[in-house]
Amino acid sequence: MSTTVAYQKGKNEVANRAYGHTNDKGRWKQTDQSTTSATLGDGGVYSSLDDLAKWDKALSDYSLLSPSEMKPALDPVQPEAGAPEEPNGRPAEYGFGWFLNAYKSHKRMWHYGETVGFRSTIQRFPNDGLTIIILSNRSDLVPADLALKVADIYLPARK
């Protein structure tokens, strides 16, 4: 991963970065994430589709983490009061950093992010060999909805 940066103000720069955009009464204006969401490890990680594809491959072929190291990420915790929720408000099965709710009976690992002017999602279907990554620098899209439309095209129907 040659273009991914964990940005720290005053310590490094983000080359070729995108800026967010927000539609304000029919006019697009450049907006950027808030300083509170641009913390290291949260909104402060800048990457590209190429680098995220490399990261996804490293997860898939266990060259980054071994199967035993990945296990906590893939074992959902039991939902309880205050447990993570999906964006639609339903209780989420959640591992160590991944939402784990199946999609149409397909095993799925997914996550999303959003801040002012940006929306993103990664939807991994490990048993199907499919990963969909959508990065958007506009605030009016729901990348997870778009990703699942793509999944509907590629995933075999299951009953």
Question: What is the element layout, followed by pairings?
Answer:
Layout: E1 5-6, E2 20-24, E3 27-31, E4 45-46, H1 49-60, H2 67-74, E5 109-115, E6 118-125, E7 130-136, H3 143-154
Antiparallel strand pairs: 1-4, 2-3, 5-6, 6-7
Identify low-pLDDT runs: none
As a percent range, the share of strand residues is 15-25%
How many structural units, i.e. domains? Answer: 1
CATH H-level homologous superfamily name: DD-peptidase/beta-lactamase superfamily
Tell me the radius of gyration: 17 Å
- Which CATH C-level class is it? Alpha Beta
Give, in order, the helices and strands.
EEEEHHEEEH
What would you say about this model in short?
It contains three helices and seven strands; from the N terminus they run ββββααβββα. By secondary structure, the protein is an alpha+beta fold.
